[in-house]
User: Which sequence fits this backbone?
């Protein structure tokens, strides 16, 4: 049987992380193709229901990326994302979803390599974890 | 326009080849065929360059002939061409927000190894964009007025140039400089490469022009402590540090500096000379108004002395002066904060700080300068004139242990030093270089000239510098050891004097400036431009521009060019009088709002206010920046961000995950 290929939905903030992911591409860095991204204006604009919907629709993992602490374009939206993701991780656990399936990372606009590392790292983890059981 | 024209989605999908950038890794024809079968898609095409004129024409004609009312372009990042394609819709009479771009280049064809899966991912992205755009609504673009004044931060050659360009068009400029005088590093230089004209002769006239310009308000010894507002309407809080000298009364006679009995090392002379405790950095200082160094002034520590006050005929000394905060209203901001130089003491094998005849490049500039501590005479610690000089390139640059980047200016000033040393002493010069990089106008010619002047070029990175002599020839000298990679030999070069070409590095306070002005920083620490090629002047923060070495190492001509470009950008905004801002703001459905006020406290811009009478919250469309923090937190789902509405994101998600959804059901 072919190796399990997880699907990761990444929510990237417009100012840092989306630009960082673009830079990784522009610099021809390579990451595993298991990630598909959605652009948000700010990681703080991540509605928790987006994450639940993603898992409900078949994602094996959800990645949230925002600006480095202190660098948020909207002053402190990334801290709000941090609070929401922490809460969500606890809630997901109660639903039987492993907390590693939802990850938050800081990826700055010049951090193409960081984006690649985060995606590859999470993909590898999810491959070990297997598909999300529904 | 008919309001119902957008009711039924009629979508045109355009897959860009971007030459081979996309088509080389993605089967674009297959993606276009796939899109043709999606709900609402009227037409799906692929084309070599969608952003080109014929590419745009394809969209225009489909809007006209097929009546499409929504457009998806799958191409590069929306950060590159979203505005381009929105413009195409606008020209064709469609609302520009009826557009969605799928990023199949940066985040698809470029970032993944070739394979079938990359085409599959492109299909997902296109389907997501199609499902999302089906739910787009026409939005009204907003225009905000531009306040016609500009803040320029930093009074080096970049800031001076930008300020003069703008002020010469009769628009007000605030030039804020943290030091007591403008001039920056360039004021410390002796000659400039490759023409060897003296830095002061070309800079000081510009400095005085700044000081007497009716449209420039010069705020030296001042720092920006806070920036609020947005493009067109910034409020900048500036701290004017106490000079303890009344600027209105001071005549700049200089008697206070003569009478002050206390001295300390001069920053302007890079510690090679002394200055008084009440001082102007140099004789050419602008403004020619001294400051009292509070840390070292005896009056402030012991309450005695007051010599400056006693001899000041203008009665300008004021020990009671306090720091002052002022607010400036500006429409745009140019950050030109310059650079620091690398501290070579970090490289212990070079012995900087240990050997008296070992200098940094900036110190050598001062030694060469006729206004410098030695009056332009090169002298060794024992007073003799040096007979030989070694110039060590790439100290802290092109070195993985310190800075990987090339500092760009060192090769050229090293050549300049070679010429100056030969001119002043007639002695021998050795340059230890990795690669000679002389790629500016007239630079290669200057390199050739110095080769003809008899400079010795040794290709190799210096391993160490020592005074430990192995033979009589090396006695009393500094011995520079490196591998001559052209000869394949280790060479020891005994010389009287050594200059280290130290790296240009980001200012030590760059982090603070970046936070205040919400600038990004690239991996080398310099401020991040909006686009490395197409927009090296703007930043991610609309209305804030960068110029000079704060954006990356560069020489004077490039700095001046960039500063003029930044000024042109600020002036273009002023000339238009207004600027379009994205129609991305939050709004509250008052029927759904429960008046819980959760959003009120979350908004970073205090844009949400509670209406006590109606018991609902309302968003100020002027203050809202569209981050969406409120919408994500609203327990009643009453808040929606235009163009980033929950339903639109959900549609995008559904589009991305359509195949997974099938598999699990």
Assistant:
């Amino acid at each position: 049987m072919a190796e399990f290929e997880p699907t990761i939905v990444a929510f990237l903030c417009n100012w840092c992380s989306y630009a960082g992911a673009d830079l990784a591409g522009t610099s021809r860095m390579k990451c595993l193709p298991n990630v598909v991204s959605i652009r948000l204006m700010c990681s703080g604009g991540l509605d928790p229901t987006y994450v639940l919907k993603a898992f409900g629709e078949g994602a094996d993992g959800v990645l949230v990326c925002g600006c480095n602490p202190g660098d948020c374009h909207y002053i402190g939206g990334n801290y709000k994302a941090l609070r929401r993701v922490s809460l969500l991780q606890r809630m997901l656990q109660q639903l039987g979803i492993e907390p590693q399936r939802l990850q938050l990372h800081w990826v700055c606009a010049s951090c193409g390599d960081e984006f690649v590392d985060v995606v590859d790292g999470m993909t590898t983890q999810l491959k070990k974890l297997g598909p999300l059981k529904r | 326009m008919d309001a119902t024209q957008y009711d039924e989605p009629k979508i045109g999908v355009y897959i860009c080849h971007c030459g081979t950038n996309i088509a080389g890794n993605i089967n674009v024809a297959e993606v276009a065929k796939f899109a043709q079968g999606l709900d609402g898609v009227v037409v799906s095409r692929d084309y070599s360059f969608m952003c080109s004129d014929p590419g745009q024409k394809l969209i225009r004609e489909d809007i006209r002939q097929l009546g499409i009312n929504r457009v998806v372009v799958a191409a590069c990042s929306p950060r590159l061409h979203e505005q381009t394609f929105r413009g195409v819709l606008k020209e064709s009479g469609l609302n520009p927000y009826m557009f969605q771009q799928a990023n199949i280049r940066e985040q698809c064809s470029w970032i993944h190894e070739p394979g079938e899966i990359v085409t599959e991912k492109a299909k997902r992205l296109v389907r997501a964009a199609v499902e999302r755009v089906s739910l787009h609504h026409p939005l009204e673009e907003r225009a905000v007025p531009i306040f016609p004044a500009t803040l320029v931060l930093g009074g080096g050659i970049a800031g001076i140039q930008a300020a003069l360009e703008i002020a010469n068009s009769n628009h007000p400029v605030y030039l804020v400089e943290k030091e007591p005088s403008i001039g920056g590093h360039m004021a410390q230089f002796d000659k400039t490469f490759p023409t060897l004209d003296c830095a002061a002769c070309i800079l000081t006239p510009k400095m005085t022009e700044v000081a007497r310009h009716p449209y420039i308000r010069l705020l030296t010894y001042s720092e920006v402590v806070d920036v609020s507002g947005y493009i067109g309407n910034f409020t900048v809080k500036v701290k004017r540090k106490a000079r303890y000298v009344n600027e209105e009364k001071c005549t700049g006679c200089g008697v206070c500096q003569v009478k002050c009995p206390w001295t300390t090392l001069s920053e302007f002379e890079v510690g090679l000379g002394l200055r008084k405790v009440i001082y102007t950095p140099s004789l050419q200082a602008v403004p020619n108004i001294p400051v009292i160094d509070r840390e070292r002034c005896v009056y402030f520590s012991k309450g005695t002395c007051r010599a400056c006050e006693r001899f000041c005929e203008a009665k300008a000394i004021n020990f009671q002066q306090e720091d002052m905060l002022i607010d400036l209203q500006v429409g745009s901001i140019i950050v030109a904060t310059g650079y620091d130089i690398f501290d070579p003491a970090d490289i212990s094998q070079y012995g900087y700080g240990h050997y008296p005849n070992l200098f940094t490049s900036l110190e050598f500039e001062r030694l060469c300068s006729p206004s410098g501590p030695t009056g332009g005479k090169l002298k060794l610690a024992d007073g003799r004139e040096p007979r030989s000089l070694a110039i060590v390139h790439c100290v802290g640059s092109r070195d993985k242990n310190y800075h990987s980047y090339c500092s760009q200016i060192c090769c050229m000033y090293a050549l300049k030093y070679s010429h100056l040393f030969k001119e002043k002493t007639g002695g021998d010069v050795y340059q230890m270089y990795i690669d000679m990089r002389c790629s500016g106008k007239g630079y290669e010619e200057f390199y050739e000239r110095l080769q003809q002047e008899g400079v010795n070029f040794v290709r190799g990175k210096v391993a160490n510098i020592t005074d430990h002599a192995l033979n009589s020839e090396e006695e009393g000298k500094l011995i520079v050891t490196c591998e001559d990679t052209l000869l394949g030999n280790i060479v020891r070069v005994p010389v009287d004097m050594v200059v280290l070409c130290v790296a240009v590095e980001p200012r030590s306070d760059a982090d603070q400036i970046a936070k205040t002005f919400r600038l990004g920083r690239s991996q080398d620490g310099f401020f991040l431009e909006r686009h490395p090629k197409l927009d090296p002047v703007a930043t991610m923060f609309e209305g804030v521009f960068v110029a000079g070495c704060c954006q990356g190492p560069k020489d004077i001509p490039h700095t001046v060019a960039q500063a003029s470009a930044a000024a042109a950008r600020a002036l273009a905004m002023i000339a238009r009088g207004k600027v379009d801002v994205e129609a991305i703001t939050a709004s509250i459905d008052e029927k759904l709002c429960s008046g819980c006020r959760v959003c009120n406290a979350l908004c970073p811009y205090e844009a949400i206010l509670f209406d006590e009478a109606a018991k609902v919250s309302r968003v100020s469309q002027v203050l809202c920046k569209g981050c969406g923090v409120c919408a994500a937190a609203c327990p009643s789902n009453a808040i929606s961000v235009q163009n980033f509405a929950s339903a639109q994101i959900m549609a995008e998600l559904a589009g991305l995950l359509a195949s997974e959804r099938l598999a699990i059901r």
Notes: The mean pLDDT of chain A is 94. The longest strand of chain A covers residues 8-13. The helical segments of chain A are 17-26, 48-57, 77-94, 112-129.
